[in-house]
């Protein structure tokens, strides 16, 4: 398995897609039940293959990631050839994960306690695995509103 197995909740949400996946392998509901009961290792492999297919599709479509922690924000644009990072670091005790902390940042972008950094990183041989690693580290797929907001600020 390249990525991670989907959670029970994710499988439930993708129930119909999983049925279609099994159908492409000529496995119907009765046969799936038999596989689960008599060959659990095969069932596990099917769950893993389906999970990887879902992750591949999701990661291929992802255009932005963001990771916000109490003292920093990492905003990524997932370009074709590389990832571009806008980093925001606070040098004070403001907590960006709170509504008040984020409001403070919005109102104090030019404060000496706010540091901006940018970087570009080429992907490794497996672009989607690079994206997945960031997700495993706590990043979330977004539509890029924060990234684009800060991009305008630092390039004015």
From TrEMBL:
<dbReference type="Pfam" id="PF20105">
    <property type="entry name" value="DUF6495"/>
</dbReference>
<protein>
    <recommendedName>
        <fullName>Histidyl-tRNA synthetase</fullName>
    </recommendedName>
</protein>
<dbReference type="InterPro" id="IPR045470">
    <property type="entry name" value="DUF6495"/>
</dbReference>
